[in-house]
Specification:
The chain is an alpha+beta fold and 134 residues long. It has a single domain (5-131), classed as Thiol Ester Dehydrase, Chain A. It is 24% helix and 33% strand. Strands 1, 2, 3, 4, 5 and 6 form a 6-stranded antiparallel sheet that branches. Strand 4 (81-90) and strand 5 (95-107) form a beta hairpin. The longest helix has 18 residues, at 16-33. 24% of the residues are buried.
């Protein structure tokens, strides 16, 4: 992604809220790479939810900077939650931010977390290996 001028704050660096938009976009692209479309998730009656996120800013990003965003799920058997680790980097490799979070899969009818988020995503994925689900 390229940092756009309107995404910067008065100090000239990427506004803090935009880091979360970048990481959200990367998560959806990651699911898409596993063969999961947003419409498929909703049709199944579930949805990913973010329960907690922490951003650690390491190096500023300015308008015009090119970035990459990684995404890694950490699954804990028997837990209703999973953990996410993401890095926002300039294309030269400079680490701009680390984002860690806790998420789950919500049953959209019951409005509660599903018991096994791994199974919910594995069932939807055409390539579950992308998500570390085999």
């Amino acid at each position: 992604m390229t940092v756009r001028g309107y995404e910067t704050d008065t100090q000239g660096h990427l506004n803090q809220s935009v880091y979360l938009q970048y990481t959200e976009h990367a998560r959806w692209e990651y699911l898409k790479a596993a063969g999961i479309e947003q419409s498929d998730i909703v049709a199944k009656g579930v949805g990913p939810v973010t329960l907690e996120q922490t951003v650690r800013y390491k190096h500023e990003l300015r308008a015009g900077d090119e970035t990459t965003v990684s995404c890694a799920f950490e699954w804990v058997p028997g837990r209703k939650v999973f953990f996410l680790r993401q890095e926002v980097r300039k294309t030269d490799g400079t680490l701009a931010a680390e984002v860690t979070g806790t998420g789950g899969m919500m049953d959209l009818r019951a409005r509660r977390l599903v018991a096994d988020p791994r199974a919910a995503l594995r069932d939807l994925a055409s390539d579950p290996k992308v998500l570390g689900l085999e």
